[in-house]
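# nightly structure sweep
# worker-07 picked up a monomer target from the shared queue
# config: single-sequence mode, recycle default, output format = structure tokens
# input follows
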Amino acid sequence: MEFLLNPNVAYLFLLAGVLMAMLALATPGTGLLEAGALVSLTLAGYGIYNLSFNWWALALIFLSVIPFVYSLRKSKGELYLGISIIVLVIGSIFLFPSQTGGPAVNLFVAFVASVLVAGFLWIAVGKSLQAARTRPAHDLDALIGQIGEAKTRIHDEGSVQVGSELWSARSEKPIKAGSAVRVLRREGFVLVVEKMD
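# output follows
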């Protein structure tokens, strides 16, 4: 465990843990990100506990979660995501002080790791937010009121083409194949239609 007492190693584990925790917040699922975050943060915590560190920098790292969570909730969350990334990078670089008062983390390691984490967070979380806010391509309620064509005779059952898709359909009155129909409502995946006059 002696290698964890190197500020560079503790810094990398800390960044990896925070990155996985933020991704787990953005896209919860399997539990792998959560478990990886727990392991990485535990290893980083061992280093932080045994090394001298700046309290203000540790507070910045924890505070970076607030704008991150806010970015997940707001429609234009890119600004808050950017603030979160900047605060995280500054806090993590200055977490371990050197003898001269500057960062103990190697500046090359800090630059490369920060750019990679910031870029990955920006792209991955940005795309996750974009996907979460995108209207589904198949908004079934948008079918109501659309015009289609009866492909078979429709009464208790039949099929209609609305747009480029074939749907199961039923109607109150019999409709001949080839007739133009209007979608009145949807019952599950069955469209209730009426003949166009």
